[in-house]
Formyltetrahydrofolate deformylase
Amino acid sequence: MQDSIQQQKVLKIVCPDVAGLITKITAICCQYKFNILKNNQFTDNKTSYFFMRAELAGCFYHQDNFFKDLDILLPIGSQYFLKDIDRRKIVILVGQEAHCLGDLLVKSAYGELDVEISAVISNHKRLSQLVHSFDVPFIFLKNEGLTRLEQEKNITDSITLYQPDYIVLAKYMRVLTPEFLRRYPNKIINIHHSLLPAFVGSRPYHQAYARGVKIIGATAHYVTNQLDAGQIIMQDAIHIDHSYSVEDMIRLGHDVEKNVLSQALNQILTHRVFLNGNRTVLL
């Protein structure tokens, strides 16, 4: 009976580029009677690496044998993943700003973003009522009187209760320690209110105003040990001019920030993001 259960999964492959890869991969999918619903691929000519994302439909009861055959088929140094298409779980860390958090709560609640928000963790109480109005657990963890490591241990303990697929920093505004980041490699996504790599760190709108920029924007990126230097997932921008104050830039920038964050999260949840050194590939 298990053989007859139809499912949909996403096949992701990263490997050294060689001739005939697509033909070989599609042939083995046909062998296992996987119907390819969608397929995208990209070859990085500078690194000679091949990236492929395929949406498959079929019976995956024998996927271990499928993996063994892929091992034989693909070049040495290949990586491949068969991802379930289901509702993913996130935990959100937030400070006092509501725009990114509120956008994610609304989109999750009304099906615009296929994600379950398991909990919201904050070092401030300000947004508790907003979170509770969506029947999502709100966890307040104070900073006062605690070292950074003690406070992060409390965060880790809370995250562990929910076992999320990803952790989203929706304007959390605190730098996380290397010890914390090592627990969640490539699992923490941040929204930064500038077009990175420009205006790293705090008060980027003030930095932008001081330089008289004519474009402001936001960047969603993976979090690494280097501040605001993780691989960029999504960016967007709007045009401004000399008449805009810092307050004008912040107000307009909020819309860009929330849109970039939700778009980037959607790309991650649908398994479209590939790491490629210091860059990302989106398929």
